[in-house]
Specification:
This protein is an alpha+beta fold. It contains 3 helices and 4 strands. InterPro entries: Dimeric_a/b-barrel, EthD_dom.
Length: about 110
């Protein structure tokens, strides 16, 4: 089992999860090359890193995937994240139509280990 680096402990992790459902679409190329870099630029020096996961299977054989994709931002400060996203929220939401018809589920958490 791979351990997280000590640098990640205590960071704020913002997970943007795109649930799978019949008839939903997701353009991974656009998300990877346009959307996530745009949001990352809004976060500036508060951003430590970001990751993108493509859903490939459920944990239970022959069941649909729970999520088509998950984008994750690791930031130093939640308040700085919120200050950066707030004024750009409409631009971020307007860009959704360029890559998906899914309403994402967002989880903000603290990295413990």
């Amino acid at each position: 089992m791979q351990n997280r680096t000590a640098d990640e402990k205590g960071l704020i992790k913002v997970s943007i999860m795109y649930p799978y459902a019949e008839g939903k679409t997701f353009n991974m190329e656009y998300y990877e090359t346009k959307h996530m870099p745009m949001v990352a630029a809004f976060l500036g020096s508060n951003l430590v890193k970001y990751t993108i996961d493509r859903g490939v299977a459920s944990g239970i054989p022959n069941q649909p995937l729970p999520f088509m994709a998950i984008g994750t931002f690791y930031v130093k400060s939640l308040s700085e994240y919120q200050s950066a996203i707030g004024p750009n929220r409409e631009a971020i939401r307007a860009d959704f139509a360029n890559y998906t018809n899914i309403t994402p589920v967002i989880l903000v958490s603290e990295v413990i280990k």
